[in-house]
UniProtKB/TrEMBL annotation, chain A:
<keyword id="KW-0132">Cell division</keyword>
<comment type="subunit">
    <text>Interacts with MinC and FtsZ.</text>
</comment>
<dbReference type="GO" id="GO:0009898">
    <property type="term" value="C:cytoplasmic side of plasma membrane"/>
</dbReference>
<dbReference type="InterPro" id="IPR025501">
    <property type="entry name" value="MinD_FleN"/>
</dbReference>
<keyword id="KW-0547">Nucleotide-binding</keyword>
<dbReference type="GO" id="GO:0051782">
    <property type="term" value="P:negative regulation of cell division"/>
</dbReference>
<dbReference type="GO" id="GO:0005829">
    <property type="term" value="C:cytosol"/>
</dbReference>
<dbReference type="InterPro" id="IPR027417">
    <property type="entry name" value="P-loop_NTPase"/>
</dbReference>
<dbReference type="GO" id="GO:0005524">
    <property type="term" value="F:ATP binding"/>
</dbReference>
Automatic annotation (TrEMBL), chain B:
<dbReference type="InterPro" id="IPR007874">
    <property type="entry name" value="MinC_N"/>
</dbReference>
<dbReference type="InterPro" id="IPR013033">
    <property type="entry name" value="MinC"/>
</dbReference>
<feature type="domain" description="Septum formation inhibitor MinC C-terminal">
    <location>
        <begin position="145"/>
        <end position="244"/>
    </location>
</feature>
<comment type="similarity">
    <text>Belongs to the MinC family.</text>
</comment>
<dbReference type="InterPro" id="IPR036145">
    <property type="entry name" value="MinC_C_sf"/>
</dbReference>
<dbReference type="GO" id="GO:0051302">
    <property type="term" value="P:regulation of cell division"/>
</dbReference>
<keyword id="KW-0132">Cell division</keyword>
<dbReference type="Pfam" id="PF05209">
    <property type="entry name" value="MinC_N"/>
</dbReference>
<keyword id="KW-0131">Cell cycle</keyword>
């Protein structure tokens, strides 16, 4: 049974696209056929982070408007098997997506993929509501600060009232909390909310904690999802999150401030 | 003929009524703002009915457009005029707002947060209170909510009690004609006895509310003392005083 997973947040710039790219890639790496759809019409972004921007010919809106077939618009990822991207258009207006037309495309994709990842635009209005409308599960991306957490709370309310599952009285959308740009040192300094604070306010199961890291910026500049960098803490944290999404119990890492290791201390080295 | 895409229903809602005694444009905004500041969350964006019932009989022409502009500038949303003196009806109708007949419903004053206004203070020309239709006889089943009530959501248990088996987030609002029980944290607004039942109470496992109200008597978060803040607590009306006590 194909699963539609929306990656959403309310607040902008918290790491939705970064997370969609990483988690989609992680699922495909593990042998699950996956497509990531960019719902951020007008602000094309996913293709840049996936490093396939030069290969975009047709986009999601072309498919919606029946100007291109899905096969023409889907881009096969060059690095990871089982992975496709359906890019958004930079030029078209946000009203291009209608409920019927999106439903039709998703139905077609459900025949071919195990996982359909919907990278939502920011906000709680129409664009974000369209991205979450057909979701079976939701990954709510939150930064450890008050305004981001509050927006996540709002989007959770919308998930449970405006999604198709809510509308039709089916089993509710399954919720996952993904805390990104987490900096334990700043938490300890009282400048950021802790994982426990965020969990307490939102009260949904924790899928992962992604540390704040330069590796993420580097990865997106190179057009390579950070999960492919198995050396990087952020890459490892995304891998853990994918394992949990697939139902494995994996202990949370990168939650506490890093202390210099035993040998480093012994040798007087710097962390 | 296919079924229509909508249903028309009658419903009663609680609104803020702005009872105008006189309208002096140069003083109005300041007075209204002072009043709103006492319970900003209550008034922000709330629908308002402007009642002219107690307007002075020989009051001069009112510039309704200016009045509406001043209200909207303070985030109120006027939806209708009520009890218009006939000589004003053309001007009021021109604003496009609905015109309602004089009210029969009971209004209750929204209390000022100051214990008592200083004696020297001039009588304000503006009075704000919430109001709703008289309570219907007979009770209704309790409404039970099993999932968190999130920011931006509003749940109303009409005619009975409300039970929430989860948290009420900051920015969320729960209302009931009867009692409200929250088996989780209350971080948003809870209004019990909204149709005037002064015996209604609010119970919660973790009191961290933005606003609590019983039968129109309000308290804001800054009124929560150390002994109840973030603790199991109940809220009850004693006379005219809203009491919050630990459970
Ligand atoms: N863990 C992280 N550490 C450091 N920087 C990060 C991290 N996650 C995301 N970023 C950076 O934050 C910025 C926003 O990320 P991204 O585009 O994924 O957010 P978004 O939620 O999709 O934004 P939008 O709302 O605009 O769609 C990017 O510059 C990205 O590189
Ligand atoms: Mg994005």
């Amino acid at each position: 049974m194909a699963k539609i997973i929306v990656v959403t947040s309310g607040k902008g710039g918290v790491g939705k696209t970064t997370s969609s790219a990483a988690i989609g890639t992680g699922l495909a790496q593990r042998g699950h056929s996956t497509i990531i759809i960019d719902f951020d019409v007008g602000l094309r972004n996913l293709d840049l982070i996936m490093g396939c921007e030069r290969r975009v010919v047709y986009d999601f809106v072309n498919v919606i408007n029946e100007e291109a077939t899905l096969n023409q618009a889907m881009i096969k990822d060059k690095r990871t098997d089982n992975l496709y991207i359906l890019p958004a258009s930079q030029t078209r207006d946000k009203d291009a997506l209608t409920e019927e037309s999106v439903a039709k495309v998703l139905e077609e994709l459900k025949e071919r993929f195990e996982y359909i990842i919907c990278d939502s635009p920011a906000g709680i209005e129409k664009g974000a509501q369209m991205a979450l409308l057909f979701a079976d599960e939701a990954i709510v991306v939150t930064n450890p600060e008050v305004s981001s957490v509050r927006d996540s709370d709002r989007i959770l309310g919308i998930l449970q009232s405006k999604s198709l599952r809510a509308r039709e009285g089916q089993e509710p959308v399954k919720e996952h909390l993904l805390i990104t740009r987490y900096n334990p040192a700043r938490v300890n300094a009282g400048e950021m909310l802790s994982v426990a604070d965020v969990e307490d306010i939102l009260a949904i199961p924790l899928l992962g904690v992604i540390p704040e890291s330069q590796d993420v910026l580097k990865a997106s500049n190179q057009g390579e999802p950070v999960i492919l960098n198995s050396e990087a803490a952020a890459g490892q944290a995304y891998s853990d999150a994918v394992e949990r999404l697939l139902g494995k119990a994996v202990e949370h890492r990168f939650v506490d401030e890093e202390r210099p290791g035993f040998f480093k201390r012994l040798l007087g080295g710097r962390a | 003929m296919s079924a229509p895409d909508f249903q028309l229903k009658g419903s009663t809602v609680t609104v803020v009524v702005l009872e105008l005694h006189r309208y002096a444009p140069e003083e109005f905004s300041a007075q209204l703002e002072a009043r709103i500041r006492q319970a900003p969350q209550l008034f922000e964006g709330s629908p308002v009915v402007i009642s002219l019932e107690s307007l002075d009989v020989d009051h001069p022409e009112v510039d309704f457009e200016a009045l509406l502009t001043q209200c909207r500038a303070l985030e109120l949303r006027p939806i209708a005029f009520r009890a218009l003196p006939p000589r004003f009806s053309a001007a009021a109708a021109a604003t496009g707002l609905a015109v309602l007949p004089p009210g029969t419903a009971r209004g209750r004053n929204i209390p000022s947060r100051e214990a008592a206004p200083a004696a020297a203070e001039p009588e304000p020309a503006v009075e704000l209170h919430t109001e709703s239709s008289p309570q219907r006889p007979g009770s209704r089943p309790t409404r039970t909510i099993t999932r968190p009530v999130r920011s931006g959501q509003q749940i109303y248990a009409e005619g009975g009690d409300l039970i929430v088996l989860a948290q009420v987030s900051e920015g969320a609002e729960v209302l009931a004609d009867g009692n409200i029980h929250i088996y989780g944290a209350l971080r948003g607004r809870a209004l019990a006895g909204v149709h005037g039942d002064a015996s209604a109470r609010i119970f919660c496992q973790n009191m961290d509310a933005e606003l609590i109200s019983v039968a129109g008597h309000f308290l804001l978060s800054d009124a929560l003392t150390e002994s109840v803040h973030r603790k199991p607590a109940q809220v009850a009306l004693q006379g005219d005083v809203l009491n919050v006590s630990a459970l």
